[in-house]
Amino acid sequence: VFIAQSRASGSHRDLEDEELTRIFVMIPKTYTEEDLREKFKMYGDIEYCSIIKNKTTGESKGLGYVRYLKPSQAAQAIEECDRSYRAILAEPKNKSSESFEHDYYSNSMRPELRGNTLPFCMQPEFCSFEKAETRIQEPVSKRLSVVSRLPFIQEQLFALFDLVPGLEYCDVQRDPHTNSGYAVIQYSTAASAIYAKYKLHGFEYPPGNRLTVIFLEDGNDSSE
């Protein structure tokens, strides 16, 4: 999803830049940079490791960065490292590191959610989105309607929405009079549908053509 967004954003940056190759991890305060490198080198070639320290005392804050040479290596580290590291993609350097650390701490300290939860839920972006969405009285469901001014190709649309875990089906329909695209998407959980709507409403697919994603009634109690 990160790479797809980068391609659709209109920027000409190299996809293998810092935003996709640098991860942020929670570590024991006794770790040195060498310890950090040793724990994460199995996932790929590391460009550098750094530990965040208290500016006054010089003591480790128990947080660190690991930058890989390739986005695929950073993604593998996030997926496969021990959950205790709470690894996520790091914010770009031009954003406030202190506010990012604060958000990371406050989100990471929440109790783990159980059941059919998304792997994205530990990312600050999704956690802040969760809090904001609870204030919006919008009926939600596991089913989505996707509209486009261009017709859809079944396999491509399925692959796009399958980036979010839990996709049950993707039914593409076509209006013979307008040639516009219309599809019904259903996920196994409302959480997946909410995340898909959040990430893909307004997404340009193909570039220049924005998708409109809204909830459809699925017959279930939306209060769940």
Topology:
Layout lengths: L1 H7 L9 H4 E5 L6 H8 L5 E8 L6 E9 L2 H10 L7 E2 L7 H12 L15 H10 L9 E6 L5 H8 L5 E8 L6 E7 L2 H11 L11 E5 L8
Antiparallel strand pairs: 1-3, 1-4, 2-3, 5-7, 5-8, 6-7
Would you tell me the overall average pLDDT?
Answer: 77
Enumerate the strands of the largest sheet in spatial order, edge to edge or round the barrel.
2-3-1-4
The chain-level structural class is alpha+beta
CATH architecture level-2 label of the domain at 16-89: 2-Layer Sandwich
Q: How large is the radius of gyration?
A: 20 Å
Helix coverage percent: 25-40%
> Secondary-structure element order, as H and E?
HHEHEEHEHHEHEEHE
Assign an overall shape: elongated
Q: What's the N-to-C terminus distance? A: 27 Å
Number of helices: 8
- Number of strand segments: 8
Beta-strand percent range: 15-25%
CATH superfamily of the domain at 16-89: RRM (RNA recognition motif) domain
Q: What is the CATH topology of the domain at 16-89? A: Alpha-Beta Plaits
> According to CATH, what is the class of the domain at 16-89?
Alpha Beta
The description of the largest β-sheet is: 4 strands, antiparallel
